[in-house]
Amino acid sequence: MKSGSVVAYIDRQRIVYAVVLEVKNSRLRLLTEGNREVNLAAGRVLHAGQNGLDVSVGRAGLVESLKAKQRQRQALAEEVRVRELWEVLNSEPGWIDLETMTGLCFNGPHSDDHQAAVLHALFENRNYFKFGQDRFFPYTEAQVEQIAAQARENSRRQKLVEDGGDWLNAVLNAPNPTVPADKLDLVRILDNLYLDGKESTDYALGNAILSRAGLKDPDIIFRALVKLGIYDENENIDLRRFKIASKFPETVSKRAQALMASGVSLDGDPRKDLTHLPILTIDGQATLDFDDALSIEKIRDSYRLGIHIADVGQAIPKGDLIDQEARRRGSSIYMPDDRIPMLPAPLAEGLCSLKAGEIRPAITIMALLSSNADVLDYEVFPSRIRVSSQWTYYDANVAAEDNPELQMLHQVAKQFREKRLDSGAVLISVPEIHVWMDRDGEIRVSRVNRESPGRMLVSELMIMANWLMARFLKDHGEPAVFRSQPKPRERLFKKMEGTLYQNWMQRKHLSRFILSSQPDHHSGLGLTEYVTATSPIRKYFDLVTQRQIRAILGLDTPYSGEAIDQVIQDLEQPMSRVTRTQFRRHRYWMLKYLESRIGQPEEAIVLYRKKNSYLILLTDYMLECDLPASERTRLNPEDLIQVRIQRVHARKDVLSVYLG
Questions:
Q1: What's the CA gap between 538 and 348, in Å, rounded?
Q2: Residues 6+ apart with CB under 8 A from 385
Q3: d(CA 544, CA 540)
Q4: Do strands 654-659 and 432-437 pair parallel, antiparallel, or not at all (unpaired)?
Q5: If both were cysteines, with which of 78, 137, 420, 589 could 130 make a disulfide (CB 3.0 to 4.6 Å apart)?
């Protein structure tokens, strides 16, 4: 190449023609047909002609000559029948050089313009030949079809982007938009983009649709889907994101109905008949799935405490369709505005539930306790029970001072807790915030006293039951879903002496609990071994552990240690999603409630200083948020302050406050 040579190169997916003004080492200074000077590496040149232009004609003359060549070569390129050429050459085994290809395309002598025209034609239509620097390789028939299919798909996607962007804008501006049948795929793409963000399989396509609509904020998608009736204004996005089904598959529902209809046969079952005992339940006001009950008798200077757990394993065989669905779900999910059960209602609220007046199979832990709640003896056995009274927490709290049974249960619970504390248990006591919707759809918020007699005694006695069942399993050498916990990284207070600040901060110093098929010490509870098996209607881990107890009692076949480990592994993701969904939904409705309290004063505790802010705790709601730091105000951990709510956006999880 030299000054005056006409060259072609590729820039931004098009062929550009230029004339060489100067050659310096391996770089070319060019003037393009668009009247631009560019500096180009010689290696990027696609074609260089033998006949050049006279650079002395000046810049305007060169540009005009280049444009004329471009028009001439374009006209010649249109004469090249690329598909017909491929039909002749597709059986050729190797590369075909430019000279040969040009001879096949044009009769008679050919010039630089003919060669450039062939390059141009095959570059514009790359469906049939692999494009080299100055050579071409014919694709196979299968490759050509694949390329054509991809081209059709690209065209479809481009139309989807154009139509989708325009339609999205129309939806946002229409008062009552609907979804026509031809827009269902578009709705699916937008839905996936909103739910999964960059992880969406349609991320690039969805973003292109947003760009076409001139939109940047993905939250616009939420607004559009609400207008279309796809989402509710308060849509639980985590249920969609994690594909958590509220309803059961039809096959599972039918199986539940069949089990309910057949009932649970207790004929020939080696169960102790405890239907004569006064057995009670204490649960929330809306509870229908009763899976634990209590009884207590005073025997001279000791107590006989009965903790009776619904024998779900008697109704649901291992590996049954219902069992498989429960394993997939992992747990019931409780939220302010919804409840998603692990088991279908006919079982959870019917056949398995310890409903008053109904005879039910149970696994009973019967403990003989001293007057100061030492466990003198205990046994675990299958039983037949009938609950005689069902208390709400409220009713139990009211009657706690007068009802002899509640008095004894509360006394035993307090003494057992004291023993756990003496053994190093970390008892974190913080208020529980209850959020719910009343009949008119209004958000209500209340503080739950977890130390009230009803809640405290149920909590402690279930801990005792789980500990005794863990001992029972350990003594029989049976694997189960054991829970353990190393010591906390730091202790901030002893026993129950901690302030609200210390209790809240202590949670941040706890070690993570460990699930294993083998028992180990649970430092947080101050117990030598521990399982959870008191909620088999609501938690799959509890059902699995209950089955291990049933196996010891001769009622079931046991899981192996490997099978228990597999259950723990299989439920890791479902349980993580359950925890996240419950936490985020509670937080959403708390923030939704606070949207009505903009500018209102709220009490808070300073937790600690961050780089440019303080982390504080709004004590009426037990919500953490940032408070911007100010040079004029110096705050210390545990300071009580008053703040005002500045901005809240529940959907975006935004909560900002200011001092004042």
A1: 8
A2: 274, 275, 277, 279, 293, 308, 354, 359, 360, 362, 364
A3: 6
A4: unpaired
A5: 137
Query: b/e map of 57-70 (b: 16 or more CB within 10 Å)?
Result: eeeeebbebbeebb
What per-residue confidence (pLDDT) applies to 274? Answer: 97
d(CA 570, CA 226): 35
C-alpha torsion 571→577→582→583, nearest 10: 120
442 burial via Cβ count (<10 Å: 0-12, 13-18, 19+): exposed
User: So where are the chain's domains?
Assistant: 6-139, 144-231, 250-585, 598-659
Give the chain's length. Answer: 660
How much of the chain is in helix, strand and coil states, percent to nearest 5?
40, 25, 35
| pLDDT, mean of residues 305-321 | 96
> Rounded to an integer, what distance in angstroms lies between the CA atom of residue 456 and that of residue 530?
19
What is the spatial distance between Cα 630 and Cα 614, in angstroms, rounded to a whole number? Answer: 10
Percent of the chain with pLDDT over 90: 85
Q: Residues 467, 527: contact at Cβ < 8 Å?
A: yes
Tokens standing for residue 128: 């049939």
CA dihedral of residues 156, 159, 165, 166 (deg, nearest 10): -140
Amino acid in the structure at residue 183: K
The model's pTM is 0.83
pLDDT at 383: 97
* Centroid of chain to Cα 49: 61
Q: Kindly state the greatest CA–CA separation across the chain.
A: 122
pLDDT at 133 over 80: no
Strand 443-448 and strand 432-437: the pairing is: antiparallel
Q: How far from the centroid of its chain's Cα atoms is residue 597's Cα?
A: 29
Does CATH place domain 598-659 in 3.40.50.11540?
no
